[in-house]
Design goal:
The protein has 144 residues and is mainly α. The protein has a single domain, classed as Multidrug-efflux Transporter Regulator, Chain: A, Domain 2, CATH 1.10.1660. It has 6 helices and 3 strands. The longest helix is centred in the last third of the chain and has 29 residues. The radius of gyration is 17 Å and the shape is elongated. The N terminus is likely disordered.
């Protein structure tokens, strides 16, 4: 696979949106859609919302989790079982860095476990959208 080269693949920034389609997540994480569907079966933490026609919609924290899984598998060379165990270790260590988890693991663990963090991420994304709309309104008002 070409991702196994010594250079890390630069991933695009994650837009401030509430939900992402599987195609968008595929592009944001440089992983094909069929791989994402497979990872859903292998990683219990990954549970996108399914709507009409079984279409998947991923939230911001799930995109971050997919990037973490991708890093473990493609960049660090973990097996599926090894990556699963590494993610579980980060979750069991809790949110404290003193527990021995690296900061990136703590970030993933915090985003996976409390429901409140998911709501805060959605709220932050909504506020960013409102901020962009206000900026557009100011621009329109300035030109009138």
């Amino acid at each position: 696979m070409t991702e196994k080269s010594s250079e890390r693949v630069a991933l695009p920034p994650i837009p401030a949106k509430r939900y992402f389609t599987i195609g968008e997540v595929s592009e944001l994480c440089a992983v094909k859609p069929h791989v994402l569907r497979y990872w859903e079966q292998e990683f219990t933490q990954l549970k996108p919302v399914k709507r009409r026609g079984n279409r998947r919609y991923y939230q911001h924290h799930e995109v971050l989790l997919i990037r973490r899984i991708r890093d473990l598998l493609y960049e660090q060379g973990f097996t599926i079982n090894g990556a699963r165990n590494r993610l579980d270790e980060g979750r069991h260590h809790g949110a404290g860095v003193a527990g021995g988890a690296e900061p990136s693991e703590v970030q993933v663990a915090v985003e996976e476990t409390p429901v409140l963090s998911v709501d805060l991420n959605a709220l932050r994304n909504d506020l960013v959208e409102v901020q962009h709309l206000l900026a557009q309104l100011k621009e329109i008002a300035r030109h009138q």
